[in-house]
Amino acid sequence: MPRRWSKYDAPYSRCNKCGWSGNDWAFKYQGLCSKCYKRWRKEKAEERKKLKIPNDNLEIAPGLIITRNVKDRLGKQAYSDVPHTQIWHLAGTFERIGCLLPLGAMAVLMFSYNAHPNFAPFLEWLTVLGFVMAAISWRIQKVETDKRRPIVDARLEELARQRQMEIEEASAFYQSSEWRLLRQKIIDQQGRICQECNCPIGEDYDLTVDHINPRSKFPDQSLDVTNLRVLCRSCNAKKGNRFPEELSDSDQQDTK
What we know:
The protein has seven helices and six strands; from the N terminus they run E-E-H-E-E-H-H-H-H-E-E-H-H. The protein is mainly alpha-helical and 256 residues long. The strands form three sheets. Strands 1-2 form a two-stranded antiparallel sheet. Strands 3-4 form a two-stranded antiparallel sheet. Strands 5-6 form a two-stranded antiparallel ribbon. Strand 1 (12-14) and strand 2 (21-23) form a beta hairpin. The model is unreliable at 252-256 (pLDDT under 50).
């Protein structure tokens, strides 16, 4: 009998690892049956997990500790927030021109050397000029990048401190007696049913109260009863820091 059901006939073969013979669609993957193929994929996933850099804590400033994944995310934002200087952009333009000059000179020498032999010295000097322009532009870009790096690091530290302040403020808010009282009131009014997927919520761990308009963007509506609804943890995590309209639009794009 085939180990994986399908309405089409599975190919017949013998597993290269366990020796099982029969019909199985998994034989086209590494020549293994379904059980051995799943075991092989699990072993490969564990190997990739060992090679992956662990998400440990990093101290980017005295008393400021963030995880490696957060540092990568904030680093990309800091890199985009600090623009390059005009000199860096001009150097990049000259570098591209310097790279194109030798290619153009070589093309002219190749196709018109016999017809215009007097142009050969001029084209050779043009090639040298292109390499010199590219080298000088590369050096200018390196100097400007070295000057920009401390500014990016300072911006990264600023973003990390803002994130730490937001975490502390959110922790203080969700531990306040006002929020706990209002949260229980919303649960009593709406029941233990998710307002998004309409599934009953049995475990207290899955029971959350969500701000329809995100609290980070509308702090004045943090304790507004009309801005609160009961959600399960999965729906709340899926919504994140977005509006319900943004969530529905992204879901429609994912389904296309």
